[in-house]
Amino acid sequence: MGNFQGRHYECMSDCSDMSSYMSRCQSCRVESGCFMVYERPNYMGMQFFMRRGEYHDMQRMMSMGMMFDSIRSCRMIPYHRGQFRMKIYERDNFGGQSYELMDDCDNIMDRYRMNDCQSCHVFDGHWLMYEQPNYRGRMMYMRPGEYRSFRDMGMSGMRWMSMRRIMDSCY
């Protein structure tokens, strides 16, 4: 049910499996902060970024770029103060061309002449990676850490072409 009807569950932190609280999540209200929501339990499958606001129904969320019809898990994105820094690599295991980013990049092909990004190391901040230039298409949340192979993360066949910092404007 959309439009905030039926059972509800209030989430104030990460939730790896919503099925014990409800069978389907068809609407969502983010009262503060930012969340990444996932198509499957345990933060797997396709992802969608949600900032403060009301998401009345799946049709509206899908028109905003969400590519699945029910939320199964969610992760709260902590507020980050300070610099943002990420190094992207053309190939798995930090191979091929590499570039360091400290700000948003709307197109890695135009900026770096890089065809693909298959691994990265996030040093500082929280980032969203997008499959298409100009922050479009499927997305993936990246928090500080090493990501040696996007393919091993279940993202085989995906190309990541733009990256954006998750800034305080959503808090």
TrEMBL record:
The Beta/gamma crystallin 'Greek key' domain, residue ranges: 33-78, 125-162
Top-rank lineage group of the source organism: Eukaryota
GO biological processes: lens development in camera-type eye; visual perception
One of the record's GO molecular function terms: structural constituent of eye lens
Keywords on record: Eye lens protein, Repeat
This protein's record includes keyword Repeat: yes
Functional summary from the UniProt entry: Crystallins are the dominant structural components of the vertebrate eye lens.
Family, as annotated: Belongs to the beta/gamma-crystallin family.
The protein, known as: Beta/gamma crystallin 'Greek key' domain-containing protein
